[in-house]
Amino acid sequence: MARLAGTGVFDPLGDRVGRVHDVVVLLRVKLPPRAVGLVVEVPGRRRVFLPLSRVTSIDPGAVITTGLVNIRRFEQRAAETLVVSQLFDRHVAMVDGSGEVAIEDAAIEQQRNRDWLLTKLFVRRRTPSKGGLFRRGESMVIDVGNVQGLAPTEEQQGARALLATMEDLKPADLADVLHDLPDRRRLEVAAALPDERLADVLEELGDDDRVSIVSALTADRAADVLDAMQPDDAADLISELPTHQASELLELMEPEEAEDVRRLLVYADHSAGGLMTTEPIILPPEATVATALAHARREDITPSLAAMVFVVRPPLETPTGRLLGVAHLQRMLREPPHEAIGTFLDKDIEPVTPDAGIGALTRLLATYNLTALPVVDEERRLLGAVSVDDVLDHLLPEDWRDADDDVTDQAMGDAHG
User: Where in the chain is the domain with CATH 3.10.580.10?
Assistant: First the structure.
């Protein structure tokens, strides 16, 4: 079943329906677990339930269905266990008393009555070592009846197996997954993420979730994660923390990152100053098109900020020298790589001041079809830029991440078949 996760699901005509996300089994007393269906991720990141009775074949690289897929959102019931998310990495005891093993894979087999049963487990022994720790021991394939303790408990499964199923998720999608996890599980998974990955996810989460996650981290770890966040998102998060905790984290952050955050904290939440990032693409007028495009390709630059370069007089760190204009990505793609961006600046974009309200920002972005606006002081020095995604985050209701689910669930129903 480890290979089954991520496999494409197709209808009888060969059209792709989605991909397998997990397998649903029912753990039964004195009977092998029964596999009842697949959780399939369909377009729109919706996860739906596909009964195994509607699966006509399972081959390497393809699961074929009858073509009938219920689009109602999957909701796990109390009696159900998700194999990849909840069973893999679980520590169980061998019935013969030979010790504990960790489940690394499982096999399902179709019976004569066409039921699918979980019959085999691929496990690895946990061998005690010095200091009360365990080391990886021999691996083996055993019958499912040779272990006890399959019933799910939060303590039995580490976050490693669950994270392995999320490696390809975009930060926004991973944020949705974390939001839906139980509180304790959410903190375990978040703590296991690398700093950069966790920073990206925190930027996509709502205030309550990210405050609880950061508060559960050690102060040093939390400061490292804040360093990796965009300054405007870090400032928003720190503003939600208790004063003593916020002060401690600012002291532990890298001085330059902390200074950017402190500058942003003085502005009102819904003003240009409160919404802006201090790290857009900033270059001098003599920089070449090739240099500008290289900056636009950086992974830490969002698409909305990558669409334009802010051209200024030195210094290039915010607050910069005088803003001269902007160079649009589309225009740069039409110019020779050696051309200086100062030769084709757009000087008609009016910058905003830090106290500009969100209504003014919205009108300017919509009127001129822009993805970002420059924010300047009274001397026209660039302080930062407000991107359209930051404005949208503040225009939408606080629970917008759940709104689609609520509307969809009401329209489609809550059950799965």
Answer: 282-395
